[in-house]
Amino acid sequence: MPSSAKDIQLRELKDTVSQLKTMISEQTELIQSLRLIIDEKSSHEKALQEQVDYLTKKLFGSSNERRSDDIPGQHNLFDEAEVEQDFSLLEEETVIREHTRKKKATHGELFKGLKVEKVVIPLPEEEQVCPVYGTQMALIGEEYVRRELEFIPATCKVIEYYSQSYGCPSCKEGLGDTEKPVIIKSQVPAALVGKGPALASTVAWTMYQKYANGLPLYRQEKDWKQYGAPISRTTLANWIIYCSQNYFQPMYDYFHRELLKRKFAMADETRVQVLNEDG
């Protein structure tokens, strides 16, 4: 009887061990599958984070390719002056390892296209007396000291158009053959955009600021307000669209028609590899 109980207990233990082995095997498979899922999630998360870092850097980061310490995000928005500084520009030439660096452009060469205003600083009258003999001193020459670049902020002005009317005195006094006096008005040039206040230079500046300098319309709206002309971004957008459709589109269509008249068109397509092909 004791032997039979031991056999039963032994079989139960064997069954328990077998169940535990099965459970361990299932748990091991589950762990492996979870690890695979975690690895896939980690890889996907890493790829997404790289995209976020890239887009964040493109949107907020510095566009200067010379930097090697760019930090993704907005950390480098306010250190442009420190990044772009180069004190060597203040020197005309620098000797490095027994050779001379080429002289940089002088201020006169840099600003040769700008209008020059000459400012002469005279000697005060009380100092124009010789301290030795007390005689009046005479001007014998002047010496160049430095150049300074002055920025003149943009200004706005309003142009009002008036037409003039001309009448015939003879018709007015009834000396002519007409029943009513002859009156002729001068022709005022047509407005650029409907009846709005848009002048060609105004719209051109708006387009230049937006597409060449990348300045959004909501920021231009603030600039116009500071200039004394509170023009809304909606009006600016209307100007751009109207001029694009009514002035640029006809020009584009004309050049398109002229292009289609040609037998072939020349283009510089840099994405086509032609340098290393056989033959």
What does this protein structure show overall?
With 279 residues, the protein is mainly α. Helix content is 44%, strand content 4%. The chain has helices at residues 2-60, 80-84, 107-110, 169-172, 200-212, 217-226, 233-260, and strands at 95-96, 99-100, 165-167, 183-185. A hairpin with a 2-residue loop joins β1 (95-96) and β2 (99-100). The longest helix is centred in the N-terminal third of the chain and has 59 residues, at 2-60.
Element order, helices and strands?
HHEEHEHEHHH
Our count of helices gives 7
State the helicity in percent bands.
Answer: 40-55%
What's the total number of strands?
Answer: 4
| N-to-C span | 98 Å
Biggest pleated sheet: 2 strands, antiparallel
Could you name the ranges where pLDDT drops below 50 across 5 or more consecutive residues? none
- Alpha-beta classification: mainly alpha
Give me the Rg, rounded.
41 Å
**How would you state the average pLDDT, rounded?**
81
Strand order of the largest sheet: 1-2
Shape: elongated
Estimated share of beta-strand residues? under 5%
List strands and helices in order, with pairings.
Layout: H1 2-60, H2 80-84, E1 95-96, E2 99-100, H3 107-110, E3 165-167, H4 169-172, E4 183-185, H5 200-212, H6 217-226, H7 233-260
Antiparallel strand pairs: 1-2, 3-4
Helix pairs in contact: 6-7
Identify the notable features of this structure and list them briefly.
279 residues; mainly alpha; two-stranded antiparallel sheet; 7 helices; 4% strand
